[in-house]
What does this fold into?
Amino acid sequence: MHKAPISLLPDVLISQIAAGEVVDRPASVVKELVENALDAGATEMTIRIDGGGIQRILVQDNGAGIPATELPLAVTRHATSKIQTLSDLESVVTLGFRGEALASIASVSQMTVSSATAGATHGHAISNRTGAWLTEPAACPIGTTVEVLSLYFSTPARRKFLKTEQTEFFHCLDVIKRMALANPSVSWVVYRDGKLYARYQASDWSARVFGILEAMADGASKPIDFETADMKLRGAIGLPDAARGRGDMQFFYVNGRFVKDKLLNHAVRAAYEDVLHGDKFPAFVLFLNLPPTEVDVNVHPAKTEVRFRNSKAVHQWVRQVILSALSSSRAVSELSPAQ
Ligand code: ADP
Ligand code: MG
It folds into this structure.
């Protein structure tokens, strides 16, 4: 068979291929933008989602901002301010580090990043709306605003895989809830199609949990706060009565990252075995912390799985901690802030 000669792919195509993995739907765009804002130290976040995020996603933060000279780099693949060396990677504390989110999103949308830093006299915006990147002075508050328009307009094949605007919006909202539960000191305002949809004011951790997961409030949950030499598990678990027919109140974080991990879910499930009917899902918000050497959270940019070095020990310990919390009489008001 005749085959074409080998050639290097153009950069835009490489980004579009990466975009298929990193930002496969509007909710993944929201996740990347919110993670960037948190990495920049934001304490206030405004999120606007129009048309299920397909029409428009806007995330405005009051974080450190991006200097005008760095704006072109911010939207370039493999350019990051978060790691420089392999050893940085091994102890990475930021949510991002690959330097490909903004470039990937831009390759499948019309994106504008406006930003001002504390020292600057005014802000700047970079946009690909005219087809090429253009940086201009712009009036904007300190912090960064990223606006993403017409997601996947250039990749109709990808667009076909999206669900209804309603479904895509609720996926976006799920992501926001996950991030808000882990960041109670940040205030969040969410607009849907121009109307205020949700507001989570900066608060302590239990107020945030009960604000988002009402079913866990009013004595319907127990605090978790256990520590060994190298593992720490904190958070709250719902009493069996708070369990639901759906697993939409299950939030597990490993070293600050939201995960959906079979092993961890199984450990929790096993602890509830004797007190919960098999078709019910326990409610929980749990933060597991362990040394970076014991866990690999960098399996894949968009996936929420982790790998433990000693998975058997983690499973046993998590199960044991939850079992003893379920049988203790401590009240959730004694809860100390998580993380
Ligand atoms: P990564 O987060 O992996 O570094 P991104 O493509 O998401 O890659 O972002 C590229 C760079 O742009 C970041 O390293 C950061 O320096 C800058 N940046 C992106 N978003 C923000 C933001 N909201 N506030 C401040 N800087 C940002
Ligand atoms: Mg990022």
In short: The longest helix spans residues 165-182. Residues 11-200 form a domain with the Heat Shock Protein 90 fold (CATH 3.30.565.10). Confidence is low (pLDDT under 50) at residues 333-339.
